[in-house]
Amino acid sequence: MTKLELLAPARTAEIGIEAIKHGADAVYIGAPRFGARVAAGNSVEDIARLVDYAHKFNAKVYVTINTIFDDKELLEVQTLINELYEIHVDALIVQDMGLLKLDLPPIPLHASTQMDNRTPEKVRFLKENGFRQVVLARELSLDEIRKIHEKCPEVSLEVFVHGALCVSLSGQCYASECLFGRSANRGECAQVCRMEYDLIQQTGSKGETRILSKKHMLSLKDLCLLDSLKELIDAGAVSFKIEGRLKDASYVKNVTAAYSQALDRIIKENPNKYERSSVGSVEYKFVPDVNKSFNRGFTTYFLHGRNNSIFSFDTPKSLGQEVGTVKDIGRGWFTVAGISKFANGDGLCFIDHTGKLCGMRVNKVENGRLYPLNMPRNLQTKMRLYRNLDKHFEDVLQHDSAERYIPVDIVMDETANGFKLTMTDDYGTYHSIDVECQKELARTHQSENIKRQLSKLGDTKYRLRNLSIEYKKNWFIPSSLLSEWRRLLVKDTELYVNEKALTKKETIQNNNTEQFSFKDLDVLNPVGLNVFNRKSWSFYEDKGLEPTEWAYEREHQQDIPVMYCKHCIKYAMGWCMKSRVSNKNAAEGNVRLINKSVNDKDSSLYLALANGQRFRLEFDCKRCLMKVYHS
Predict the structure, then answer these.
(1) Alpha helices in 219-378 (DSSP H)
(2) Nearest 5°: CA angle at 376, between 373 and 382?
């Protein structure tokens, strides 16, 4: 039986608890320091509280310590890892291989996507060096995931299924460090990819041509693989990760619920093949819909091959859900052609005739007319309208919107000196208590009161599904005794489950019996290993993979790409000679200006920021990679 894991983000312990309530099998949360989202750190005490709640449902808590460390930080990192081990976190998500040279407790390690894990050789290298689970690169296709699984079947493969996409290969982006001294590999990404650029062509002595102005040329849509989960499972993935450690609770609740229900449907259709890795049932008080949470429009990225629905040049902001087109416009109001209902407080947006995203808040809805708080002057009829804030939906998510519980069956039987109560669930938990009680016959029927008292499990994780009273006589049992027995039964069952769950973690094993080379690991450039400390350098030396350069963050090397991107601007603009994409298939909203000399050897393409900073684009068509250089 294959266990499937839905892995949700937790900006805070409270959001992590909500993720588990809404169906997550595991959550990942930032440590107090050293996470790839520096603004999403949490105290060890808060993480411990999350661990205690998660383990009630056999759900797991993974802590991100996935930055690279300087030499002075290693002692602090080791101390932190020991503290996390003591509170029983289930794994660490890491990037810096220098950790393997420290005296670590036996805590499982997961290889962060920041390691750029996209080949079977890299995954096997990580497995041979003690990693239990590997977070694959976002750019992989189904076939590439399948090949990794076939060559490394013993490794748990984790894939991103939803949320924001990095345009650069993860861990291989130095643009933020280059421009602002804020390293993405140190948790301080400045989101250079979401900025506004001019696209400029320079051709020898002929000068420059500005092809596009003020477009978000490196901004991608958000990933959504909700309809591709079964394909990912068939390809060998077992952990499905939702991006979003900076997202709020309503986002995490909604998206987690949607993916949890999708996994449950797959399991229901394949009951003998798959099961969830955690336990419990979830009762929702809303209908999940990923379109109603923050999104830049959705893409399946490269899962099914290269396509032209990856990018969003007009805006890096949330579009939300398309709700219709503008029908009529009056003084201070407008109407919408569509089937959507609107409410006071809804957030709406549209892309105007210049390609800019414009937003407004609905102040009043009356007789089919929408009255914005401020009427946009550039709103026109037939424009597409999007809702990026659904007020009614958000109001529901601001309250208790799901309950997670474990259904139990209780059997009550009599013994010579009293009664025996046995509680079982669907996951192999079985526990019973014997209680002494003087027996006397009741004047009225007792079964309803027994059921009422034993059903009062509201402050626990259990919910009574079936009660079976096995004895024949109508014995009188006071309600106070029934309540006491219920508490005792639940308490003893909890102790049994916790003792069973706290098994000793396996020691990290280093079984490296195979020789690897930089070619095997597909290192893209001399700094691509992101070696920032001497322990990391020593690790690679021991493996016969002596680095040639320190990490970019330690020594700003010249003439190396600051980004490697599968997203290709030539492809987006319809200029790809390899795939012969026609102009008709170029990105929607792009200016249809095709310069036929763009592929000439004397022609160069640049991205220019408003402050004059430039990036030169180089195209490795053999590998289908776009390299971005700071010039």
Answers:
(1) 229-235, 249-269
(2) 120
Lowest mean per-residue pLDDT among 19-28, 122-131, 201-210, 439-448: 201-210
Q: Residues 118, 267: one domain? A: yes
Say how many CA atoms lie within 13 Å of 115 toward its Cβ.
26
Distance CA 195, CA 218 (A): 8
CA 190, 191, 195 angle in degrees (round to 5)? 115
DSSP strands (E only) in 264-366: 274-276, 281-284, 298-299, 321-330, 333-337, 347-351, 357-366
Q: Which residues of 348-372 are buried (b: 16+ CB within 10 A; e: fewer)?
A: bbbbeeebebbbbebbebeeeebeb
What does the block give as tokens for 112? 């962060």
Same domain? 357 vs 486:
no
Q: Has residue 602 got a pLDDT over 90?
A: no
**Residue corresponding to tokens 């970019």:** 552
- What is the average pLDDT across 268-282? 97
Is 338 found in the same domain as 274? no
Cβ 575 vs Cβ 596: under 8 Å: no
Q: Is residue 510 part of a domain?
A: no
Task: State whether 494 and 443 are in the same domain.
Answer: yes
23-41 CB burial, b ≥16 within 10 A, e <16: bbbbbbbbbbebbbbbebb
Alpha helices in 245-387 (DSSP H): 249-269
Residue linked to tokens 């099998």: 25
Whether residues 249 and 348 fall in one domain: no
pLDDT value for 41 = 80
Tokens 């394909």 appear where? 231
Pairing of strands 156-163, 131-135: parallel
| Residues 253 and 153 occupy one common structural domain | yes
Distance CA 571, CA 43 (A): 45
The pLDDT of residue 204 is 73
CA proximity to 197, closest of 569, 561, 570, 610 = 610
pLDDT score for 495: 65
The residue type found at 451 is K
% the chain with pLDDT above 90: 83
Query: What tokens were used for 38?
Result: 């520096």
Query: In angstroms, rounded to a whole number, what is the distance separating the alpha carbons of residues 94 and 171?
Result: 12
* Residues 473 and 377 reside in one and the same domain: no
